[in-house]
Structures are given as structure tokens and as C-alpha cells.
Amino acid sequence: MTKIRVHEYAKQIDKSSKEVIEQLTKLNVEVTNHMSTLEGDAVQKLDGIYKKTAGQPNKVVQAKPQAQTTSNQSKPSGQSQSRPASQSQSRPTGQSQSRPASQSQSRPTGQSQSRPASQSQSRPTGQSQSRPASQTQSRPTTGQSQSRPSGQNQGQSKPATPSTATQGTNSQPKEKKVFTNNARPGGNSRPGGQNRPGQRFQKRRKGPTTPVQPPVPRKERELPAKITFTESLTVIELSKKIGREPAEIIKKLFLLGVMSTINQVLDKDAIELICADYGVEVEEEIKIDITDLDVFFESAEGNPEDSEERPPVVTIMGHVDHGKTTLLDSIRNTKVTAGEAGGITQHIGAYQVVVENGKKITFLDTPGHAAFTTMRARGAKVTDVTILVVAADDGVMPQTVEAINHAKAAEVPIIVAVNKMDKPSANPDKVMQELTEHGLVSEAWGGETIFVPISALTGDGIDNLLEMVLLVSEVAELKANPKRLAIGSVIEAQLDKGKGSVATLLVQDGTLRVGDPIVVGHSFGRVRAMINDLGRRVKEAGPSTPVEITGLNEVPKAGDRFVVFEDEKTARQVGESRASEAQVNQRSEKTRVTLDNLFDQMKQGEMKELNIIVKADVQGTVEAMASSLMKIEVEGVNVRIIHTGAGAITESDISLAAASNAIVIGFNVRPDLNAKRAAEEDGVDIRLHKIIYKVIEEIEFAMKGLLDPEYQEKIIGQAEVRETFKVSKVGTIAGSYVTEGKLARDSGVRVIRDSIVIFEGELDTLKRFKDDAKEVAKGYECGLTIKNFNEIKEGDIVEAFIMEEIKRK
Ligand SMILES: Nc1nc2c(ncn2[C@@H]2O[C@H](COP(=O)(O)OP(=O)(O)OP(=O)(O)O)[C@@H](O)[C@H]2O)c(=O)[nH]1
């Protein structure tokens, strides 16, 4: 029989030792103090008393392990089988005692009662004998457990161990075992009593705890709805983002045919595939290079929120003396001064006028297409509308056509102002007729081009012209967001002795303010002062407003773009890095298309169209050449004639070619001095010809990559033959000494004897001692053989040369 000390028993039933001693005294059991040992019958007596409160459940508790074997049959096998079997059969008494204790903790009285005694029948005798002891002991425990919420049972069963363990030193390790078992999934809280009515009820109440315990399926994190990444992710990074095991992802990749490791870098496609499989949305965050100012312009374009209508920016173009300046002045004088009394017009490169209905129009006041194209060549897309001035008494002239082509190349809508209508010789119909030939068909004749008859001198028709400008811009839906930080372009800039760098900026989006940290081209600074086109100091300038600013560290160029940054530090960093980048770029200037690099550019997919400017001595030839050239099409690349004309190649042709990445073809004409210089500066390829079919052939060959490279010979060194050796199968080896430059293995050679070239061919072998040499430099000895030449003699000079490709002119 198990012995137990008074204090242990008292602890089990949650009473004081004193109380138990008193009870024992009442029961006539002699004990001296709390350390006294209680015999089995004494324990039973006590149980008899305390059991009345905790009562019968203990029986059940004890019976439970037994019952498990029996009840296993009716229980869901997974739950009960494992535990009872191990408990009842393998465990000595001590163990089984503790088990019920822990089990009983989790089980309320009602449940345990229903456990039939028959359960014990299935137990081996030895076990069942030990059970009663455990029953009695565990009963009080059961009593305790009643008061505990079921959810606590598992946790509490462990702390219970020491208390049970104190029953005897022997039992301690055993106890541990028992509790280990209990702690197993499906342990205590999965009572075999499921099939018992009372317990089933109880079980249901405990419902939520039961399924949580068994073979704990890893609780998976909820999948995010969306993840973002920049450039790529490794498997482990992706796994963290979506909260799944890397192994799971690797498996998925494997199933997709991609072998990967945990650190494998996944590209966009792989990330998207995996995420699609999980139903997670993916977004790639594009890293923005803030030193690339164009990025700010691109992002502004695709951002329609907060956009408001902005005034159009207009450039006036046309032939010399057709009235551009007069028109600009006329508009300015009537509109600007009228609107702003007392304003003194300031020529800052652009001005803004207010039209009757309060709408504004900005004019770039450098007339002509040179400025327009220069700006475009630098990447600035400033102009929204072009007014093409054509004098009604003169008609379409060469520069009119140039202007049309410049505007077309920039894809800017054209409004034709038929000027000098006040003149008696004015013939607007002739202008209309002539322009039709250049693709500008008047609305009156069923075309789409707006023609406005005006007189820049008298001001007639100017209101109508401005109205038309607004109409065209309305169609174009010109928008900007005045709330954002300003971006725009430089109209003109210069160094002022007093003010330093002065630049006229056209705000294209956002609002520019005094104090703004700004990067302009490769310069940077803070906007120190702003002056508008009326010479007035202003604090801010909204979209399409031209202002002159000071505060830059250097003078930018017309056409440079500007961007305002949040803070000066960033502006400085960007400005400085752009300046150093510009230096590097200057060295490796982006190659303009030339016939020599055309094929490479086509291969790299950089070219969709080959832009050509055709200039010839007579118009007829121009047309013939243009139409033949347009028929050429190689590998999906078309020829596009962007401008033609009779006469010399001018600077304007070069600037258009530079802005449009075009080649200039001159037939029986030459570039003038300025054009030559400009072409050299801008790297524009000019091809001069005298025979038409040669022109066509050259372009076609260039597009096919068939242009034969031109070579010139370059002597790289010389060697003197000091000794010769005849070797069978090899030939004559010339033991030589390099006297000049070097000899290279792949160089061509000439054999010179008494100043006469007696043989020209290639080196066969070149050796330093026994080793093959790629090169042998001056002052070294070498052994060489020459292909197909064995008559080499002592004293011969071997001259080495290479063929160098020369740039075509
Ligand atoms: N009668 C008349 N003369 C005009 C009109 N517009 C301009 N002119 C005259 O034409 C001449 C040339 O005018 P500009 O405005 O200088 O012409 P432009 O196109 O600016 O010339 P460039 O600056 O040389 O390219 C001047 O003498 C003007 O007075 C007009 O509507 N009617």
C-alpha cells in the first residue's frame, strides 16, 4: 500500500495539514505532526471524508486509464488509443497514480463518474491493483480541477507534477514521465469519455481546445493582399513577404520547372507566378533615379489628379521678313500693356498675355525655328502650338517649309497666320494652295489646319488668331498641377555681372516659389529672386508662366530642364552628380546616327525609322531622291524624309538633324561654313553625292550593314633576321631581333631585302625561346616563320603591319 505524509495528503486535497491532523484525530488515527506517514487505510478513511465533497469522481479518474483500454473501442481511435495503452500497461503504480491525477484535473466530476469499473477489467492485474491507490490520491486533485476552467488543464497538469511527485521519492521520475505523456497531443483533454453522455456534453463545451492540440498543424499567417518589390527578390525574401515557408515556395518553383535555392534571386516573372498561385497581388516599385530629371517629367504626365487647365505655350515661326517679330510685338503691346497698366515690358525670352475671356497664352518671344529646335535638341518639349506666319504677298518660302518640318518633327499642331493681309498684293489663296503641298490643308478646303488672315501691322485678325490658339489648346487638353513642386525648362540664360547666373524658366508643371531648392540642367541653387515678363518681382509662378530667376551656381543652357526639390541638400547632391555625369557623358557623347553606326543601332532595336534630310541643287532632284529613298525598307526600319530643300546645307538643317537624329544628304550641294561647324559640333553625319543611285545604294547598304569598312595600313614594328634554321616540316625559322616597335602574332609582314620588298604575307609562328608569343617588343629576340615563305635570309628586315579601320567621311 502506498504511504503518504500528512502534509502531502493535505496538499492534495487543498487543506491545511492541521485540518487533516484534526480529521485524523477524529478518525482515531494517530499522527504526531504533518510529517507523519499515513497508511493506506488511514488514507482511505480520509478519502471517505473528503471524497464526499470531491467524491466519486475520483473513482472515475482512477478508472479512466482502465476505461481507456475498453473505451478505446468506442472512441475515435486516434484520440484514445495511444494514451491509455502506454499509460496502463507500461506504467508501474506510481505512474498510474499521477496520471489519473492529471487527467482528473481536466475532467470534471460528472464525466469521470460514468467511467465503468469494467474498464479495470481489461487491465492487467498488477495495474489495476495499483490503481485504487491512485484513485484515492487523485480524487482530491479532481476536486481541484473542478474549479478550474477546462482550458487551464493542460497548463496546470504540469505544475501538478511536483505535488504528486512528493508522494514518494521513487515516484518523482515516474511522475515526470506520466506528465510527459499527458502533455502529448490528445492527452488529458481528449478523454475517452467522449462516448460517455456526461462527458460528451462536457467535451463539447471544451470543444475548441480539443482540435487545437493534436498534431498541431502549423498556423499559417494570413496571406497579404499585395506585396511590393524592387527589381527582384530572393526566395527567402519572398517567403517573408507572403508569410510562407521558403520550402513551400521552392516546391512551387520546382513544379513550375524552376530549380531554386533559398537564396535564389527571383525575377519579376517568377515572383508574379508564385504570387498568382497564392492569389497575392504584386507590384513592382521602380527605383527612381532622381538625378535623371526626365523622370520627373514623365511622372508628371501620367498624373491627372489635381490637374488644372494651363495656358498654352506658343512659338511663332516663319520665313524671314514675313512678320514674326511684328506679330509678337503686336500681341504683346496690345495685350500685355493693356492688361497690366504701368508695366514695363521686359524681354526675358517669353511673355504671357491675357485674352478677353481671362484665359492666358504664353509666347516664346524668340521667333524662328532655330531656338525652337535648339531647345528640342536638348530634350525640352515646351511648345504646345506653333503659329506659322506666312506673308500673304510672298507665299510659301524655303524657311516656311523648314518651319513646317520642324513643327511636324516635334509633333506640335500648326496654326497658319496669313500675314500682311493689309497689303493690296495679299493673296491668301495662293498661300493656302502652296501649303496644301506641304500637308497643311485649310479647314475651308476640307482639311484640318486653321488658317487665320491677319495683319501684324494693323492688328487685324489678331484676336481671332488668339482665339484659335485657345481652341487648339482646348482640344489638346493642356493640364498641370499647380500644387506640386515645379518642373520646367530654361528658355534662355546668361551671366549677369551684377546678378550672377540669370535664367528665364518656363514653369511647365507645379508652382515655382522664391526660396525653392532647384536643379537646372547641371546647375543648382535656391531661387533667390523671380521677375516676371513685366519686370515685376513675384513670389511664385504657376504652370506655363515664364520667370527670370537668379540664385543658380552656374549658367544653364536654353532647353535644359529644371526640377524643384524638397530640400536644398538633395538639390545640391543631384546638381553635383549631374554636373559630373555631364562631364563623363561629354567624353562618350551619345552617338548620333551615322551611316557607319546605323546598322548597329538598327540591330540594337534603337531605330524604328531612319530620319533623312535631303538637300539638292534643284527641286526636281530633291523630289526624285526623296521618293527613291522612301522606298527603301530593311528589317522593318523605314526611311523617313523629315525635310527636303533646294540649296546649300544650312545650320538650320543641321540643328533639325541633331534634334531629330537624322542624316543629311547633299546632292550637288555643300554645307555652308556654319553648317559644317555645327555638324562637327553636333556629330551630324552629312553625306555628299553626285550620282543619285550611289545615294540610294549607300543608304541601303548601310541599313543592311553591308558598307565595306575602309582600312589603312599601319606599320607597327621591324625586326632584323640574325640567323636562320631550316627545320623539316616547319620550314625556315628566322632567329630575329626586334629593332623597332613590336611584332605581333596576327600582324601582316613584309620581307625587305636591300630596301626591296621581296615578299608580303602573314606570320606563321612567333616564338620567344620555345614559347609561342603574342607579341615581341623592341629589344627582344624572337623566332619567326612566315606563311608560304622559306627563303628568308640573314640580314633580311621583317616589317610588321596591321590594317586599321578608318572612319568614313
Ligand atoms: N504691311 C504690313 N507689313 C508688315 C506686316 N507684318 C510685318 N510687316 C513688315 O514686314 C517687315 C518684316 O517684319 P518682321 O516682323 O521683322 O519679320 P520677321 O519675320 O520677324 O523677320 P526676321 O526677324 O528677319 O525673321 C517689317 O518691315 C514689318 O513692318 C503686316 O501685317 N503688314
Characterize this entry briefly.
With 809 residues, this protein is an alpha+beta fold.
What does this structure look like?
There is one protein chain. The protein is α+β, with helices and mostly antiparallel strands. The protein folds into 6 domains: about 5-50; about 225-285, Arc Repressor Mutant, subunit A (Orthogonal Bundle); about 310-475, P-loop containing nucleotide triphosphate hydrolases (Rossmann fold), CATH 3.40.50; about 485-585, Translation factors (Elongation Factor Tu (Ef-tu), domain 3); about 605-705, Translation initiation factor IF- 2, domain 3 (Rossmann fold, 3-Layer(aba) Sandwich), CATH 3.40.50.10050; about 710-805, Elongation Factor Tu (Ef-tu), domain 3 (Beta Barrel). Helix content is about 40%, strand content about 25%. It is built from 29 helices and 35 strands. The strands form 9 sheets. The chain has a 6-stranded mixed β-sheet with strand order 9-10-8-11-12-13, with helices on both faces. The longest helix is centred in the first third of the chain and has 23 residues, at about 125-145. Residues about 55-205 have low confidence and may be disordered. The structure holds guanosine-5'-triphosphate (GTP). Its main location: cytoplasm.
- Biggest β-sheet: strands ordered side by side in the sheet: 9-10-8-11-12-13
What is the number of E strands?
35
CATH superfamily of the largest domain: P-loop containing nucleotide triphosphate hydrolases
CATH architecture assignment of the largest domain: 3-Layer(aba) Sandwich
**Count of alpha and pi helical runs:** 29
Beta-strand share of residues: 25-35%
Bound molecule kinds, no repeats? guanosine-5'-triphosphate
Largest sheet entry: 6 strands, mixed
Query: What general outline do the C-alpha atoms trace?
Result: flat
Number of domains: 6
Q: Please tell me the overall pLDDT.
A: 75
Measured as a percent range, the helix fraction is: 25-40%
Structural class: alpha+beta
If you consult CATH, what is the topology of the largest domain? Rossmann fold
